[in-house]
Automatic annotation (TrEMBL), chains A, B:
<dbReference type="InterPro" id="IPR001333">
    <property type="entry name" value="Peptidase_M32_Taq"/>
</dbReference>
<dbReference type="GO" id="GO:0006508">
    <property type="term" value="P:proteolysis"/>
</dbReference>
<keyword id="KW-0645">Protease</keyword>
<keyword id="KW-0482">Metalloprotease</keyword>
<feature type="binding site">
    <location>
        <position position="296"/>
    </location>
    <ligand>
        <name>Zn(2+)</name>
    </ligand>
</feature>
<dbReference type="GO" id="GO:0008270">
    <property type="term" value="F:zinc ion binding"/>
</dbReference>
<keyword id="KW-0121">Carboxypeptidase</keyword>
<dbReference type="GO" id="GO:0004181">
    <property type="term" value="F:metallocarboxypeptidase activity"/>
</dbReference>
<comment type="similarity">
    <text>Belongs to the peptidase M32 family.</text>
</comment>
<keyword id="KW-0378">Hydrolase</keyword>
<feature type="binding site">
    <location>
        <position position="270"/>
    </location>
    <ligand>
        <name>Zn(2+)</name>
    </ligand>
</feature>
<feature type="binding site">
    <location>
        <position position="266"/>
    </location>
    <ligand>
        <name>Zn(2+)</name>
    </ligand>
</feature>
<keyword id="KW-0862">Zinc</keyword>
<feature type="active site" description="Proton donor/acceptor">
    <location>
        <position position="267"/>
    </location>
</feature>
<comment type="function">
    <text>Broad specificity carboxypetidase that releases amino acids sequentially from the C-terminus, including neutral, aromatic, polar and basic residues.</text>
</comment>
<protein>
    <recommendedName>
        <fullName>Metal-dependent carboxypeptidase</fullName>
        <ecNumber>3.4.17.19</ecNumber>
    </recommendedName>
</protein>
<keyword id="KW-0479">Metal-binding</keyword>
Length: 496, 496
């Protein structure tokens, strides 16, 4: 690699990370295309090309000159924002270098085999088949956690959390989730008791095309810029692409439009965050989204704070009627989208019961990493927790129990808390913006949605990773994470 | 770059060229996406990412170890096919290294500016604006031609031809095109004289969707494998992607289906060649298509030898009627698709007058490179040639004269002959296969098309670049390029 003659070490670094970003652009394109466009015959060559690309990106992120240059740049005169960018560069360098290549390779290969087998094992409720794979994979995850722990001076589980939520600790999560545990189960019961409205409706079948037209109109209402992104179809909805070209996907169920519609609203939240990241920092680590929880806060803001609110649904109702020929009233739509129904599956859970699924996984992951829970005891632990948190029975039902998520099957621990942190941040942002904008629900009902997104753009999106999560949230709302807002939101929506 | 410990220098090279191929896969994906899917907002980041990728591919192709390793591999025991692969590696290495980086950069930048300005200048018939840009660009093209000439021991124009047609010479082309010149203008006149059938038809407007459905059915009939490719829309039709995932495009004119339909047939010819390249050589230089003329021979085989033949059109007629509600008979379709009408524009030209457009450009390019024709004299030269070859007047009409093609505006000389060579090879292949298969037109009329493509697959596609063009054509047809078959084909079709 030839070095340019830079005016500073920091400049050398920005050029290098810009180069990395160009290759990551191609990686995002390859991923998106694979999920949406690629015919099956393309898969072997694509797999090989993507592996080559990943290897090249890893080489760039571990380039030998980086260690010294990152060190030397620390002593240069930098603006506050440049210093933040340098911090993120250090973080990326650390992430790419901390785990020895041999362990990365072993874990990647085992995770690939474990996931592949899991797809069938889950279908067949085959816990005995899955268990040894998961045990072998957990051993490598623990090894990873220990290496990260030593390098960062964090506990092993904190080190895993920090892959997704820099700065988050088990202690903090225990306090937040502990608080949640004191009121959520009883709230669920009260809501179920109170919930009397009709909840089964005849939903006429709607063509994918009509649903897509509606979806695009809703995206447009939510301010999605189609000159900077696309909507397509994939079997697992996601939001990909790059900031100037954000590509979200959904899947259509022609017998029930409600799921794809809310899915599009959710992904549009992710997409607007990406579209709103600071243009001046594009291609630099500081220009990336802050964390998984903040990302999820934006999708859940769209889905939960806006999308399932009656103001939004009253605005949507005529559009649904027009495009889908649906007879559902705003009240009926609200009943559908705020129905509380404790169930076995996390991804199908409603807004109130969802955090219970996360609580359970958080407790399990802590135990798996600190050794207080063995893989063998996982199903029993799962059944007890599901029973006590949600009153549902998963005894013997592994496929809808501890085998339901892909995360563990690929050896990814530490991610689950981000979902509920995101829901909490979303509520906190809404209450904060209401101090200046007034009721969000009222604004949305009037179609007056632009200022809501201006608030998010100014306070969250345009900040990229220039601030830590705590700084970001404090600057936006006056305080760091405060789960009371989430409670208030749920009480307002479900008990009023 | 870390070197593996290979069993031989040749093995080292195959690994290295495999790596290059992975990055070229990403380049093909980026190009296709840019033309078909990318929203306008993605263009800046994509441009930068693609430039970074091109730079990386160039670095790989000019890696310092290659010169010695290519040399050392020459002395290793190689199979005939490995030796052919090594020859193609040497050719790629030569192409990537022959022009100094400073000239590549200067030409790329000037070509970009020249093309950008040309888009408006052409619209405005602004020859005076275009001329100085073209003069500046021609100076760099001559510099490139001289460098290539010295490196290869070829004349400067031969060196440019060899970028697209390895082994082709000006002398050979002069003989082939000289022959053409003796009979083509009079053939055109005879056909025009003879041509009496109706040629203006009311073509009902057809939706893009209906045309696409028809296009897919025709692709299917032509053996295109949709598990290994796609059909999409772009403003300039092309065939891209990679062998296991070939992506062709078209554009639909809802007021006239005939153009998109023949466009799809043409691109399907390119696509089947790519899909049929030797699987064992994927990712290696010997696995690539042989040359531009051979590629064009496959598209023109589909379009001219099959697509515009009455057998094919009789097979197509009921499908057109079914999908587009068209009332056109096979005879009317044949009249449309074989109408001869000398005109100003190459890309709109019919099968018989097309070579005249190529002849003119070949003569002009030779003159521009050897200095016997100046850019300033180009319009006059153009007008004289068009008048004598086709009897049409381009005096003062620069935009439909020497400003009509993008090739020169981007400094690409030496490509045009490939189009007509392709047409000639296509005719030669058809006559050769008819010695064993009988009349192609009859087979197609019966829908019995598989053996035609088996012949092409066996003789052409599966050969990749394992043979030189002359060897390939001789092995397939018993002789090297023989333009008599093209003449015979045109006389059969247009004078019978």
């Amino acid at each position: 690699m030839t070095q340019p003659s830079p005016s500073s070490h920091y400049d050398t670094l920005t050029k290098h990370f810009q180069t990395i970003s160009h290759f990551e652009h191609l990686s995002a394109l390859g991923d998106w295309d694979q999920a949406t466009m690629m015919p099956v015959g393309g898969s072997a060559a694509r797999g090989a090309a993507m592996a080559e690309l990943a290897k090249h990106i890893h080489e760039l992120k571990t380039a030998p000159f980086l260690a010294d240059t990152l060190q030397l740049a620390q002593d240069e005169m930098l603006t506050r924002e440049q210093a933040a960018n340098l911090k993120e560069m250090n973080y990326q360098f650390f992430q790419a270098n901390v785990i020895p290549a041999s362990l990365v390779k072993a874990k990647t290969e085992l995770a690939y085999r474990c996931e592949h087998a899991w797809r069938d094992q889950r279908k067949n409720n085959d816990w005995q088949g899955f268990r040894p794979n998961l045990e072998a994979l957990m051993a490598l995850v623990k090894e990873e956690a220990n290496i990260r722990s030593q390098a960062q001076g964090l506990s092993p589980y904190d080190a895993l959390l920090n892959k997704f939520e820099p700065g988050m600790t088990t202690e903090h999560l225990e306090s937040v989730f502990g608080h949640l545990k004191t009121w959520l189960p009883s709230l669920i019961q009260r809501v179920q008791h109170k919930q009397t409205g009709e909840h089964r409706f005849n939903i006429d079948s709607c063509s994918s095309q009509a649903q897509e037209t509606l979806g695009r109109e809703v995206m447009d209402f939510l301010g999605f810029d189609f000159t900077q992104g696309r909507l397509d179809v994939s079997s697992h909805p996601f939001c990909g692409g790059v900031p100037g070209d954000v590509r979200l996907t959904t899947r259509y169920d022609e017998s029930d439009f409600t799921s794809a519609l809310m899915g599009v609203i959710h992904e549009t939240g992710h997409a607007r965050y990406e579209q709103g990241l600071p243009i001046n920092w594009r291609g630099q680590p500081a220009g990336h989204a802050r964390s998984m929880a903040i990302h999820e806060s934006q999708s859940l803001f769209c889905e939960m704070q806006l999308g399932r609110g009656s103001g939004f649904l009253s605005h949507l109702q005529p559009q649904i009627a027009k495009h889908l020929g649906s007879q559902l009233s705003t009240e009926q739509l609200t009943n559908i989208y705020t129905r509380v129904n404790p169930g076995l599956i996390r991804v199908d859970a409603d807004e109130i019961t969802y955090p219970c699924h996360v609580l359970l996984r958080f407790e399990a992951e802590k135990g798996l990493i600190d050794g207080s829970l063995s893989v063998a005891d996982l199903p029993e632990f799962w059944a007890q927790q599901m029973s006590s948190l949600l009153g549902v029975n998963t005894q013997g039902n592994f496929k809808d129990g501890c085998m339901q998520d892909i995360h563990w099957a690929v050896g990814e621990l530490g991610y689950f808390p981000s979902y509920t942190l995101g829901a909490m941040y979303a509520a906190q942002f809404r209450f904060a913006m209401e101090t200046s904008l007034g009721s969000v629900d009222t604004l949305v009902a009037q179609g007056d949605i632009a200022q809501i997104f201006e608030w998010l753009e100014q306070k969250i999106w345009s900040q990229g990773s220039l601030l830590s999560t705590d700084e970001l949230v404090k600057q936006a709302t006056g305080e760091t994470l405060n789960p009371d807002y989430f409670k208030r939101h749920l009480e307002q929506r479900y008990l009023k």
